[in-house]
Structure formats: C-alpha cells, structure tokens
Amino acid sequence: MLYTIAIILLVLWLLGMVSAYTIGGLIHILLVVAIVMVLLRVIRGERL
Fold it and tell me: Where are the membrane-spanning stretches (predicted)?
C-alpha cells in the first residue's frame, strides 16, 4: 500500500514537471512526502 501511494505521488510529480508551474510546488511537496514515507519504511526494516 505504501509503495502504491509513493508511485502515484511520483507520477503526479512527473506530470507536474510537464504541466503549468502553478501546481509545481504542491507536486514537489507530495514527492518529498513520498520519499520520506519510503525512507521510514526502509529504516524500520519492514519487508516489501
């Protein structure tokens, strides 16, 4: 479930890179949230 959310946020970030700059800030914040979530899972040692 966590990786699904991270992939969705990554896709939204990529779409934000090619779309208007007005939503670019929000997309970058979502990308940072996705990276933090994945890092927390890796640090905790949870299995995929």
Answer: 6-39
**pTM of the predicted model, to two decimals?**
0.50
φ, ψ of residue 9 in degrees (nearest 5): -65, -35
Tell me the pLDDT tens digit for each residue of 10-24: 777 777 666 666 566
Return the pLDDT at 12.
Answer: 75
Length of the chain measured in residues: 48
- Spatial separation of the C-alpha atoms in residues 30 and 10, rounded to whole Å: 8
What is the C-alpha separation between 41 and 38, in angstroms, rounded? 5
Q: How many C-beta atoms surround the C-beta of residue 37 within 10 A?
A: 15
